[in-house]
Amino acid sequence: MNSDRLRLNLDRMLQAASDANRFTDGMDREAFKADVVLQRAVGMSLLMAAEAATQIMEKYPEFVAEHPELPWSSIRGMRNRIAHGYFEIDLDKVWDTARFEAPDMVANIYTLRNWRAQGE
Length: 120
Prior knowledge:
Blueprint: H1 3-23, H2 29-33, H3 36-59, H4 61-66, H5 72-84, H6 91-117
Helix pairs in contact: 1-3, 1-6, 3-5, 3-6
């Protein structure tokens, strides 16, 4: 297992999920739904986080199996919906993911990343 590549993908997930949450900080759902630029920034951030997760799922299945605290399949599902359903994206789901699920993902990745950095 190339641990440097795994760490890089975890870092990418952490940064992108953090961005999605930070971009929506201090606003409500209706303001988000009225701002197409913000919708696209948040959607792209979620897509980036999910793409990094997909890379981990494909290249490090043993890591994924060891860490069910992250909803790997749901993350990949979100990636597929954003990447392939451009005009059918559920903005309520994007909002909920950025505001409520991304902070948990960030906390879990941060814990995982720091635990792995200490040499397991």
